[in-house]
Write a structure and sequence with these properties.
With 111 residues, the chain is mainly β. A hairpin with a 1-residue loop joins strand 9 and strand 10. The chain is globular. The protein is built from no helices and 11 strands. The strands form 2 sheets. Strands 2, 4, 5, 6, 9, 10 and 11 form a 7-stranded mixed β-sheet that branches.
Length: 111
Amino acid sequence: QVRLVESGGGLVQAGGSLRLSCAASRTMGTMGWYRQAPGKEREFVATVTSIGRTNYADSVRARFTISRDNAKNTMYLQMNDLKPEDTAVYYCKAWWLIDYWGQGTQITVSS
């Protein structure tokens, strides 16, 4: 059974920064971040492949950076210039034969 543990969420003012981490219990393939705001569907934020290729949603491309440390089985999301519309629960997803999801971590951006 694969476990994904997210950390780094919290409350931040608009324009601030946060860094999320997602630690996996084993080596994973493509990993990514998704988010779900209240009353909205879960949406794609960014992904990173096992060899470091990245993809971003247009809404975060210029502000967020996804990365991973394969030696630590950990993925990161550096979020800069946060906006109130970034407020959501952020979920880590990782693939190894099937998709696995983390428990989610709350990000709240105050205006």
